[in-house]
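ugh ok fine here u go
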Amino acid sequence: MYLAWLVFVRQVSVSINEAWRVAGSPAEFGSWWGDLDRDPTHTFFREARNAGLKEASDIIVMQSVLDGRTSPLAYWTFAGGPHYGDPIVARCQRYTDWLYYSVWSPAAERLFEWTMRERQNSLDPFPV
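structure:
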């Protein structure tokens, strides 16, 4: 599931890139977009996606907590990088929130006027 999630979140960037292209690749947006691409957490997840798709190395590993009072508890953590040993669920949720609030929403606002004509001429995604 983690690798599928990585592929899905990468599609956010692909969609924004396509909207930027349709908008005529405005320089102001390109500069903002380039700065986001250098974000270290964004880079980490992009590299994890690439490594996972190539099956070059383990990108997550199972950890367990042993407690004599209960059954062992297992959870997935990052196998390397700056988030080594961190549970993946919380970090992935924070990254998903960052994508929405810091990438997708601002990109939609910045590209809204430039992509108006294409959106007006496209098929209704929710036909009645």
